[in-house]
Amino acid sequence: MNGHICGTGAYAPKNILDNQKLSQIVDTSDAWIQERTGIVSRHLVLEEDTVTMATQAAKKAIEMAGISAEEIDLIVLATCSAKRLLPCSACEVQKEIGAIHATCFDLNAACTGFLYAYNTAQAYLQSNLYKTILVIGAETLSRQVDYKDRSTCILFGDGAGAVLVKAKEQGMFSMISHSEGEKGEVLTCEQGDYIKMNGQEVFKFAVRNVPNVILEVLQKNKMKPDEIDYFILHQANKRIVEAVAKRLQVDIGKFPMNVKDYGNTSSASIPILLDEWNRKKKLKPGMKIIMAGFGAGLSWGATLIEW
Residue 9 and residue 272: Cα distance in Å, rounded? Predict the structure, then answer.
């Protein structure tokens, strides 16, 4: 028994900070940011927080799936930027959507968070413990960056994405994941402090490990890169996605990107992109898709699914 995505949803704040406005705050420019990251603008919260955005994304996924919130057995919410430590954000979303029968917990694996949350949901479905699971990635990273530090403040945005996963007899699911805590100091955020990052080291880590883990999951399933319809990567940096496509010798057209409009939304980036591609009718039943995440920990992984 594997999980099948039957609904997607996303939410991004209406407040947009583009590169031109950002250049008035910190010593940077639109050309400098675009050349290094591919980012043009990012959405930032005003009144919203991690829970309110997650709730909006969840409602859209539930509506698309055509079920009631009371049918949900489990809510797994990936975030590293919850407004409150207690109660967990997943429980707060449960309250807002009326998923009264759901077990709820949060998961923190930073930018790899949604992928790990999705894999966790699949494990529960395969064990027959649950039948209908809501998986959410939601982040409010604008409140964790120093707007005097151009190496980080240009990168991050806020948003949430969600998928509704239901048990299904048929369908493909396979995953590979890794962590390397010894190198975790290249991307950190102390409680009450700002995100600090060694950008060059994170870039080298991503372009080396993401192609390798994608090849791992392909080899595990005796498949080749050209058999995959789309590669949905964590949207951290346009240059990283391009480097992964080049290493795999796969046409860049198979790597959807929306980092230009959202920036790096950490655990929200993959589900936001999935929802965007889904609502554009780009994802067809039977398509083979690889989702790949990477980030603080250091952690990374790739998951193969059938749409």
Answer: 7
Nearest of 10, 9, 8, 19 to residue 261 by alpha carbon: 19
Q: How far apart are CA 291 and CA 227, in angstroms?
A: 14
138 in Cβ contact with 79 (< 8 Å): yes
Q: 269-279 and 50-65 helices cross at what angle (nearest 10)?
A: 30
Active-site choice (153, 234, 237, 278): 234
Active site residue 234: yes
| Known catalytic membership, residue 264 | yes
* Measured distance CA(136)–CA(7) in Å, rounded: 12
CB 293 within 8 A of CB 205: no
Q: Which of 111, 119, 153, 237 is catalytic?
A: 111
Question: Residue ranges of the alpha helices (H) in 16-100?
Answer: 19-22, 30-37, 50-65, 89-97
Query: Is omega for the bond preceding 283 within 30 degrees of 0, making it cis?
Result: no
The pLDDT tens digits of the residues spanning 232-273 come to 999 999 999 999 999 999 999 999 999 999 999 999 999 999
pTM above 0.85, yes or no: yes
